[in-house]
Amino acid sequence: MRTREPLPLTAVTIDDRFWAPRRELIRTRTLRHQEGQMRRPGQQFDALTLTWRPGDPHEPHIFWESDVAKWIEAASHCLATTDDPELDQAVDEAIELLAGAQQDDGYLNVYFTVVKPGQRFTDLRDAHELYCAGHLVEAGVAHFEATGKTRLLDIVRRYADLIDTVFSPDGPCAGGYDGHQEIELALVKLYRATGERRYLDLSRRLIDWRGQQPFYFEVELQRRGTPGYFGTRLPQRPEDARRFREYNQSHQPVADQAEVVGHSVRAMYMYSAMTDLAGEYDDDRLLQALQRLWTSLTTKKLYITGGAGSDPSIEGFGPDYDLPDAHGYAETCASVGLVQWAQRMSNLTGRGHYIDTLERALYNGVLSGASADGTHYFYGNPLASDGTVARQEWFGCACCPPNLARLIGELGRYVYAQGPDEAVINLYVAGTGRFTLTGGEVTLRQETRYPQDGHLAVTVTPTDDEAEFTLAIRIPGWSRQPTITVNGEPVDQPVLRDGYLTLSRRWRTGDLVEIDLDMEVRRTWAHPAVASAAGKVALERGPVVFCLEGVDHDCAVHTLTLTRDTRIHAVPDERTGVATLHADATTDATADGQLYGNRPPGRRSVTLTAVPYFSWGNRGLSGMTVWIRDGGLGAVPAGTASNSEHVESSNGRG
Amino acid sequence: MRTREPLPLTAVTIDDRFWAPRRELIRTRTLRHQEGQMRRPGQQFDALTLTWRPGDPHEPHIFWESDVAKWIEAASHCLATTDDPELDQAVDEAIELLAGAQQDDGYLNVYFTVVKPGQRFTDLRDAHELYCAGHLVEAGVAHFEATGKTRLLDIVRRYADLIDTVFSPDGPCAGGYDGHQEIELALVKLYRATGERRYLDLSRRLIDWRGQQPFYFEVELQRRGTPGYFGTRLPQRPEDARRFREYNQSHQPVADQAEVVGHSVRAMYMYSAMTDLAGEYDDDRLLQALQRLWTSLTTKKLYITGGAGSDPSIEGFGPDYDLPDAHGYAETCASVGLVQWAQRMSNLTGRGHYIDTLERALYNGVLSGASADGTHYFYGNPLASDGTVARQEWFGCACCPPNLARLIGELGRYVYAQGPDEAVINLYVAGTGRFTLTGGEVTLRQETRYPQDGHLAVTVTPTDDEAEFTLAIRIPGWSRQPTITVNGEPVDQPVLRDGYLTLSRRWRTGDLVEIDLDMEVRRTWAHPAVASAAGKVALERGPVVFCLEGVDHDCAVHTLTLTRDTRIHAVPDERTGVATLHADATTDATADGQLYGNRPPGRRSVTLTAVPYFSWGNRGLSGMTVWIRDGGLGAVPAGTASNSEHVESSNGRG
Q1: What is the pTM of this model?
Q2: What is the CA radius of gyration of chain A?
Q3: Which residues of A are catalytic?
Q4: DSSP helix/strand/coil, B423
Q5: Cα A202 from chain centroid?
Q6: Active-site entry in B129, B246, B315, B359
Q7: Are strands A628-630 and A561-562 parallel, antiparallel or unpaired?
């Protein structure tokens, strides 16, 4: 069933004006900044020396290996395509710290070595042990693939071998699984990097055991007899049991699940692993579950920004259509996880609409996670702010900053995909991809200023001058009438299949495909069940969701009202690399100083300015809103107003 | 400066169709229910036996005396006007438990007697020691005034005497004050009940020391050297110091304060005490501070329901105009506190507008705190719900249930007030009030079905058949054109002063004053800076704020849109004792199953039903909203629409 796979990072170059500076910022600033945070006394790097003793300050935290691992993974992605001896050496140092922290039997976890020795694998639900292990495995694979060095890969293999024994069908933790999913997808990567099938089978076991009865975490709790690490925060009362199980998606066997519930990052990582396994095992039942879950997410639980998970109290999913704006959640890590899952779904099924959602998350909910200077981060990404919300330098649980770094570092793996006879362009990113197809080796070069405009030029260069294959270029679902030419000739009846322009022919060096996407500003409405968007409209252009910031207005952004027939002008903007939108609008005029009164607010005219959502909060503290009050059709004759649902919006073009 | 004082409970009867059943419910169900909760093994009553030992389950909680005290106070208010031997006996039993828990030197606090002996008065900031003492004092005064028994009054006087010594200017806690204000207002009551001026002076010291530098809680922390009871939750970092001080309103001397900040219940209790002291000490500077704080609260920080405090993370006030609906706070106790403060402000200044705000809190944010059956409670009172919010039976910190009970038990003290020569009606509540004026004793009898309709009939009965005095009847600010008659004759030029109809004459037995208030439904808009109310309108009628509940509609309540020119019909409703409103409205029609799309939602017609906010959540889980989408003027010619801010709403009458 596995139809396509990503190109390796080393086969992709990126010289895109939007993305290349962002990747460079990750390498030159973000990773250095994060390394500095982790090198502070008593923090992650010091913890790996195993010198902490009870009573010392800075008790090692259960998450800390994952921070180090994600940082190594992000750095490895950068090293795959960029020579950076200083970063290379810093990574090697971190790897030696990990080597020193590894126990003789392969075990590698500081918390259970120095803080709670003798309690390994007894608090799977809370203590993030396998979660950290998974990130270490991902780091080992990434470092090996980027640099060819096997030092970390060997370390994590020894650890994975130990886990395989402990979680073997007759091992001490048979039936168990991770309280925070992550290792499952990592083991698939380890299998693919090493060819060792037992890692794949271990991943399959961990996924299959999940949700079986009796519930492992309840067995574990009874066996242990003491509360877990987060015991007081996760309810143990019988009536709360389902919610507690849903939190980590262990409420029922994964292949039976139909609704996206619980902690959002746990969910995204698990669905990613399930997608890998559906392909590897050709498991149609798993695929059907994934399609149900995808529908649940994308038709009932996803922010327009690609933010996943709306309930801060569980860092996860609320009821259907419960997507509060200022008081929502939308963790950066969950959007990163959604990008991972969407790519796997697209590669497994060959469908382009998954990449539409991937782009929604990538250009909005993921990018908003970091400041323009790359050193401040959002953990949650709200869709509105009263002006008191700002990105922070670091977090006690610092999962998001390195997660964002590793995704952008790894961007090359998301741009292209290949099947035996097809070269696939999923994302419009200037640069090159080198494909190894049945018909020979081919390089595609993209030229584009996307998402500032919608023009894409693809030049084909087969190594042997000629090659027969299918070139599949994704056409985003929002682009209604793309213009397509091959070698300057219009393609009148383009084959659009599963969201891809599909061109099958014998390609010659220098063949040129050009596409112009429809980049008009789109007015977007949410399903009426979404309370925070009721009576409101959002603005999108290409893959980018826009927002209003207080700094651009002399009134509170929530008072701005845009009618449906107002022309919207898009002006290219170098600050954000996209565009700024302008339109005539109105705002509530303040009548008097009273908080409540019986006269409706007056209106006055203002110019509305909208900027990309991902760019908000980079110009000082400021109010912000994605959802804009929808003024209907404005001052038009009465007879026309009743037809409002049938009127297309009139839009400016960038 | 103290111009008026409440009538004592024993001088008031209530046979009002709206309030009498609610008071009776408190006595017959709520107080019994709460007693049952506190009598559970290991809970409040058991703790008072002082038999708990380290290692035992159910460690006594720092708040527990306050729960018992508020329950005694509420029960005492009921016993003041109703014979209930069973309740009387239960109260006496609780008082004997308190007597048994009192130490030889008068000290009375379980936590610092059995859990942390030897640490009295060392954690004033967090440990609620003086807060509990204050509630004990209030209970002692209430029990004495209701029953004439001095048993509890003697107990709390001994405790207050100890506190007076400890907090004397040369005592060990000189300069200190409570982390949760409460004892300040209680000491004023104790002074008034006993005539002992030292209790008043102690209250004044505690208020005056607050906010002086160096800040006492920081001195206390240094002196103690260990974190306070809530140490990990209250930041100690220098940059957070101001917010930390504001939390308990100790950031500056109280007479200098101008903005309502911090924990909302602490604030309301403190302002109440300040108002008492401003009157007792004729302190104009304190009064000016109170007027600034009142303006801050009522023009920038108060929910339309009289809910005070919008930020759940501090159980208190957010920035100006930050009043989120579904994710706000509005603790029941804070509305109770606002009722207390507003009454004091009105009595001190003789102004009726304070009672407008008192009514806003009482009929909305306070009453919503309990279920119709009197046994389930809201801690926070949100202005919107997605249908997942329900009242609960009890709370770990059970401050709200008994607080609501004592306020409704004490309602008689809020109905009337008296000055030397004036009898004042503040609330329209059927029953009688007996006044002792310079000109003799007078009984006023109110007949009314308020708030179901706006008719009030007041019959005057001087004990000596005649008496010369001023009868002042509050005319609510929202009632634009009251009709007034005396003995059936219209009063053409009524004297309306400071919000009161003022009638000065020689009154004779049987004199009858009748008032008809304007009870039309009012459309109310919030200040444009309130994001949650932008583009929305609320419905009020009399003192009652209305809301929409999902149970009355076949669509989500947030999709309902009401135009400004739609007639609203009010139908009397026995279930709530008020009215139900009906109007033609529209709702968003669901076009397809997509979460986001580029066609605006269609509209369909529905009947909107609005019920009193206080009654919501009594018919199963259901969505709810106070703020209703404002549809403007509906389908009218274009030229008219631009005048929308000058058009009066067209309203139905009940």
Answers
A1: 0.90
A2: 25
A3: 315, 399
A4: strand
A5: 25
A6: B315
A7: parallel
The number of beta carbons lying within 10 Å of the beta carbon of residue B259 is 17
Rounded (10°) CA dihedral B182, B187, B188, B189:
90
Could you tell me which chain A residue has the CA closest to the CA of B386? A322
Q: What SS3 class is residue B556?
A: coil
Cβ–Cβ contact A384 with B under 8 A:
yes
List of chain B residues whose C-beta atoms are within 8 Å of the C-beta of residue A597: 524-525
Compute the half-sphere exposure of residue B410: CA atoms within 13 Å on the CB side of its CA: 27
**A431, amino acid identity:** G
DSSP structural state of residue A484: E
For range A508-519, the mean pLDDT: 97
* Contact call for residues B153 and B144 (beta carbons, < 8 A): yes
Residue A39: which H helix or E strand, with range?
Answer: helix A31-39
pLDDT for residue B372 is more than 60: yes
Residues in Cβ contact with B269 at an 8 Å cutoff, skipping those fewer than 6 apart: B180, B181, B182, B184, B185, B337, B340
Neighbour count for residue B589 (Cβ, 10 Å) = 13
d(CA A330, CA B603): 30
Q: What three-state secondary structure class fits A223? A: helix
Give whole-number Cα distances, A213 to A218, A246, A253, A614, in Å.
10, 14, 9, 43
| Number of residues assigned to chain A | 654
The encoded tokens of residue A545 equal 């969701």
Q: Which residue type, as a one-letter code, is found at position B151?
A: R
Closest to A617 (Cα-Cα) out of A381, A269, A320, A414: A381
Would you place residue A645 in the very low, low, confident or very high pLDDT band (cuts 50, 70, 90)?
very low
Task: Measure Cα distances from A543 to A36, A583, A615, A638, B547 in Å.
Answer: 34, 20, 14, 35, 39
* Interchain proximity A326–B327, CB inside 8 Å: yes
Handedness of CA A283, A284, A289, A293 (dihedral sign): positive
**pLDDT tens readout for residues A570-584:** 999 999 999 999 999
What is the spatial distance between Cα A494 and Cα A496, in angstroms, rounded to a whole number?
A: 6
**Mean pLDDT, residues B50-61 taken together:** 93
Q: Which of B302, B555, B649 sits opposite A595 (nearest CB)?
A: B302
The end-to-end CA distance of chain A, in Å, is 41
The tens digit of pLDDT for each residue in B91-115 reads 999 999 999 999 999 999 999 999 9
Is B600's CB within 8 Å of A304's CB? Answer: no
Contact call for B528 and A603, based on CB within 8 A? no
Cα of B618 vs its chain's centroid, Å: 21
Task: Tell me, yes or no, if B93 is annotated catalytic.
Answer: no
Percentage of chain B beyond pLDDT 90 is: 85
Sort B41 into a burial class: Cβ within 10 Å, 0-12 / 13-18 / 19+: exposed
Tokens matching residue A429: 């990113």
pLDDT digits (tens, 9 = 90+) for A548-574: 999 999 999 999 999 999 999 999 999
A418, amino acid identity: Q
Q: Are A597 and B564 in contact (CB < 8 Å)?
A: no
Two tokens, residue A144? 């090996």
The pLDDT of residue A402 = 79
| Annotation says B315 is catalytic | yes
Distance between CA atoms of residues B240 and B257, nearest Å: 19
The residues, any chain, with a CB within 8 Å of residue A204's CB and separated by 6 or more, are A277, A281
- Locate tokens 């910190």: which residue? B397
What is the Cα–Cα distance from B168 to B172, expressed in whole angstroms?
A: 8
Return the bridge partners of A472, or none: A424, A502
The answer to whether the CB atoms of B594 and A527 lie below 8 A apart is yes
> Is the CB of B598 inside 8 Å of chain A's CB atoms?
yes
- Strands of B329-439, DSSP E: 384-385, 416-419, 422-425, 431-437
From first CA to last CA, the distance across chain B in angstroms is 41
Average the pLDDT over each of A31-40, A272-281, B330-339 and give the range with the smallest value. A31-40
In this structure, which amino acid lies at residue B364?
A: N
Q: How far is CA B110 from the centre of its chain?
A: 28
